[in-house]
Every structure is written in C-alpha cells, then in structure tokens.
Amino acid sequence: MSYPHSKTLMTLYTAKICPFAQRAVWALKEAKAEHATEYIDLKNKPSWYSLVNPLLQVPVLRMPDGQFLYESLLVARFVADKYPESGLMPSDPLARYNVDYFIERVGGLLLKPTFEIARAPSEERVEKANEAVKKNLVEINTMLLERDSKNTGGNKGTYVLGSQFTLAEICTLTFLSRLELVFSLCNLELNEEMASKLGVDLSRFFEWRNAVFARPAYIESAPTKDLMLTFFAPMMNL
Amino acid sequence: MSYPHSKTLMTLYTAKICPFAQRAVWALKEAKAEHATEYIDLKNKPSWYSLVNPLLQVPVLRMPDGQFLYESLLVARFVADKYPESGLMPSDPLARYNVDYFIERVGGLLLKPTFEIARAPSEERVEKANEAVKKNLVEINTMLLERDSKNTGGNKGTYVLGSQFTLAEICTLTFLSRLELVFSLCNLELNEEMASKLGVDLSRFFEWRNAVFARPAYIESAPTKDLMLTFFAPMMNL
C-alpha cells in the first residue's frame, strides 16, 4: 500500500476541524514554510493513513526523507525551530520558558471548558459557561496583565511576549474558536458585555483575542462555523 | 513572610525523593550551572514555601531577579537552552524534535507502571511487573534500536541521540530507579535474566540504563534506596 505525499516538500496531514492540527497548519503559514497538505476526513479515514500514523491522529508532518513528526505541540515547536526568522519562538532561554509555561497553563483553560460545557446536561450549560468565564478566562486575563508588566520598552504589545507573536498564541488560541461556538450554542455571546454582566473584566483577554484572530494565517487555518457545528451540535443533542 | 534564596545565584527548590525534581537537579549538574539548593520536606512543607509555589510542588527554579520557573520538563529545557555548551539539547531542529518526542513517549512508559505495580493488590503485583517488562520496556528497547538505525557515522553511541547525552535521558530515566525499587519489593530483579525468563530481549534497554546510571551527575542527584523505601513501602502496605 502506498500513501500520498510530496517527494520534495514537507507534507502535512491535517483536518480543518481539529484544534490540535490547526496549531501545525497555522505555524507553517506564519513561518511561510513551503509544504504540501493532505486533508484527512476524520469520520472516514483513508485506509492508507495507518501508514502515516498508526494512532490515526492528526496532525502529522512528513519530512521529505520519510520521517514522520507527531504531536501537535512538538510539530509546532519543530516549525519554530526550523524557521527561526519567523520569531515563533524567541531565542532567549527565559523568554522561551515563558512561552512554554504559558502554553502549558493556558491551553487547558480553553480546551477543558469547551467539552465540559458541550457535555453538560442542557439546563446546566449556561451555568458552566458562566463559571468558565469567571474562572478560566479571568485567569488568562490576569496572566496576560502579568506578562504586560514584564514586557517593557520596545517589547510592549498585544501578545504574550508583547510585540512578538509566538507559539504562545498558536498553541493556545486554536481552542478558543471552539469554545466560542459552544457558547453561541448556549445563546451566549462571549464578549465584554457578557463579562461585564458577570462582574469580571476581560478587556485584556479580548484585546489579545481580537489581535490574534485578525491575523491572515489564523483566518486561513480556522474551520468555518458550519464545520464546527457538524462536530459540536450532535454532541450537544442539538 | 520571607523565604530562603540566594541573592546572586539561581536557587533550586527540590526534594530527593521526587523523580520530577530530580530532572532539574540532574540537568543543572550536567550543565555545571552554579546554583543554590533548598531541600523541601514534602511531608512537612515549610510555611514560606507557598511564596515560592502556590501549588506547593517541586521543583521550582528561582532566578536571581525573583522570577520562579515551574514544571520540571520546562525547567530542564530552560537549563539546556541557557547552557547550550552542555549539549543537553541538540541545536538541529529535527534532532530537538526527536529528543522531545522520546521524552513524550517514554516518560510515561516508566512512571505509569511504577504506580500501577505499587498500587496493585499484593498477589497481582508480580503479574503487573511482568506485563510492564513485556510491554513497556520492550517498547523502549525497540525505540532505542530504531534510534540506533538513524544515529550513523560519528553519532553512533549508547544514548538516544547516539554519542550525545541529552534531556532524552534526564527527562525519562529518573523514573526508572523508582520502578526498579518497586520491582525489588516484589522480589524481582529487573535485569537481563528476568527479561530472558519472560522471553524478551531488553539488552539495548539495559545498555542504555547502565551507561546513564553510571554518570556522576545522575548518581549525585538520585535518592538512596532507603529514602525510596519510606515512600513506596507504606503505599504497598509493606
């Protein structure tokens, strides 16, 4: 059995719906890394895909020499290391740690509530959503303000490392569009008005979100709302 | 309230028993990184420790300017980045990925069975231990052989990256001494004779283990058998 791949370029195996795979797509786009793409239908995986990944997960990045790279965080990190001019990882060791630590803490704060809300009994979903805003998003807002206090001088800016866009954004914010979709399915709009009603200030969080979600590479890598609906609506019995 | 720390050096907060903390200690020693050490009694934590880590875990590395670094893997990675001459992380992006991926896969293959065996009902412990040898250790042995086939020329050697000792060793093998202790509490010696009785070949695994465990920085960072006993014997009702 053979499988499709580029003979000369890196080949990315991905799926639009998957927030983990989107990390790899987005990182490659930000780094302007030339590569081929194969889309995998996760509900109907091609039989050859077991040759690419015995675990059948996306993303996988195939090197032109045939080595496969697994695990979205490690693939994104590889892209950042291979294209240092992208600035996706800073070169200073302490700044690198700060990116790593932000990813470690914040990724789960966005991914976990998405599924907790989606899987909650319908009458409890709005409550779970309000809880997530008050707890998880406030925590992220606080972490961003703490980073701001350390990003001084020429390094001031909207991102986790101030003016430098890094993996800290790519490896956390792909989970947010899924969370926002789940909120909307609860008839909640995740915005400053909602936060204000709950008595919390998420202005730094929204400033960050809006700047990142406006990046062309994010927009190109993101699933449509319709596609996300096909995933979450059945889970929520909608 | 104040807390003990060096004003000029990095300060490591650690505990000999903890395999996660040992990653940080070992990495600092391999990198010959000058630092101060504060030992935390995990069964009787000093009240000031909440100022160092609200989660009360070890290790924590404090920078001279007061920043705290959490999460053993990220601390070890920081040490490798800060002391590139240590070679604890290679500079080539694909080699870095290979270290990361080995850690991701193998750490759990050693840590998980340690606690599964320790917590099993006593009559099932030996069975669980045999299973772990046949499944987890064989998998590691296979991964090492696969790496060998890629480590060619001047890069041949005992370690995951051949001749280069890296975080691939530090961030996986601190779990092995705990696993070996748990085996010994089941009256099993984890060695080639045991593997042979089970019909599996772990010679590459033992070659790796023996070379790594002979390193002075490993030996200095490791807990004594007696200390490990005070942790595992009560868990196993011994």
UniProtKB/TrEMBL annotation, chains A, B:
<dbReference type="Pfam" id="PF13409">
    <property type="entry name" value="GST_N_2"/>
</dbReference>
<dbReference type="GO" id="GO:0005737">
    <property type="term" value="C:cytoplasm"/>
</dbReference>
<protein>
    <recommendedName>
        <fullName>GST N-terminal domain-containing protein</fullName>
    </recommendedName>
</protein>
<dbReference type="InterPro" id="IPR036249">
    <property type="entry name" value="Thioredoxin-like_sf"/>
</dbReference>
<dbReference type="InterPro" id="IPR010987">
    <property type="entry name" value="Glutathione-S-Trfase_C-like"/>
</dbReference>
<feature type="domain" description="GST N-terminal">
    <location>
        <begin position="8"/>
        <end position="87"/>
    </location>
</feature>
<dbReference type="InterPro" id="IPR036282">
    <property type="entry name" value="Glutathione-S-Trfase_C_sf"/>
</dbReference>
<dbReference type="InterPro" id="IPR040079">
    <property type="entry name" value="Glutathione_S-Trfase"/>
</dbReference>
<dbReference type="InterPro" id="IPR004045">
    <property type="entry name" value="Glutathione_S-Trfase_N"/>
</dbReference>
<dbReference type="InterPro" id="IPR050983">
    <property type="entry name" value="GST_Omega/HSP26"/>
</dbReference>
<feature type="domain" description="GST C-terminal">
    <location>
        <begin position="92"/>
        <end position="232"/>
    </location>
</feature>
